[in-house]
Amino acid sequence: MTTAEPVLVRANGLTKHFGDFEAVRGIDVEVRRGEAFGFLGPNGAGKSSTMRMISCTSPRTGGELSVLGLDPNTQGPTIRARLGVVPQTDNLDTELTVRQNLQTYGRYFGLSRAQVREKAIELLEFAQLADRADHEVEPLSGGMKRRLTIARSLINDPDLLLLDEPTTGLDPQARHLLWDRLFRLKQSGVTLIITTHYMDEAEQLCDRLVVMDGGKIAAEGSPSELISRYSTREVLELRFAPGTQEAVVPSVVDLAERVEVLPDRLLLYTKDGEGALGAVHGRGVRPLSSLVRRSTLEDVFLHLTGRTLVD
């Protein structure tokens, strides 16, 4: 994906109000063909409201928005026919089998019976559900249902795939299997837009992302660019008994470029975590535990907003 690729989604000054509440407060976004683009932020940041405007299921309040070169306000049905949408909550038909969920959905897009039969076989293989094809949906695990929902969203070979919090509620094994399926889609050239509050998910899947908070965009770039711009190479975590950590700050504040105080620990942002830890011990500071790790998007969000992604 390069900047020469066509822009599939362009928003300028996009807003969404619900009465007096501003869910989206004038954001600018461009998503190009072939990239995986992310909206990273906590619940209530405005991610899902933005996604519903892009998917043409909620009209914008103000600003400009084009999707696939079209205006959602006047050409919504045309746009929706070319989209794949994975909602936050699975809305599968539990009275149908796994295969029937795909075939029935395909008919909504005008595919022939022969086409949906062939497409269903392909998508069942992709989702690793071929052995469950004629099983009922309800007994499936959460991860299987999520993979089926994603497979269903691909039945019309969409130009753009929208995934709203795709792995919320899944166990780690199911999340990683789903990431593998999404990575394969990205490698095949499918354009993805993903909302998530999982920083590891954003780092794994997104070529580029925006950090959202309070309906606004706080930063934009690739995961590595954002970490380089707003954080240090390493972070030293020092855990203390709750309520005792703030008294330690004067003893360590000069050992890091930045110190964040959380309810049960201090975060020291530094180029050399092990060196900082040695200096901490040298000053007689004895935390309950310590950890040196690399910086993540969670640290970027904390720097930009003063709080963690999941409060």
Q: What are its keywords?
A:
35% helix; six-stranded mixed beta sheet; alpha/beta; 311 residues
Description:
The protein is α/β, with parallel strands linked by helices and 311 residues long. It folds into two domains: 216 residues, 3-Layer(aba) Sandwich (Rossmann fold), CATH 3.40.50.300; 63 residues, YebC, transcriptional regulation domain (Alpha-Beta Plaits, 2-Layer Sandwich), CATH 3.30.70. 35% of the residues lie in helices and 27% in strands. It is built from eleven helices and 13 strands. The strands form three sheets. The protein has a six-stranded mixed beta sheet with strand order 5-6-7-3-8-9, sandwiched between helices. Its main location: membrane. Keywords: Antibiotic resistance, ATP-binding, Cell membrane, Membrane, Nucleotide-binding, Translocase, Transport. GO terms for molecular function: ATP binding; ATP hydrolysis activity. It comes from Umezawaea endophytica. This is ATP-binding cassette domain-containing protein.
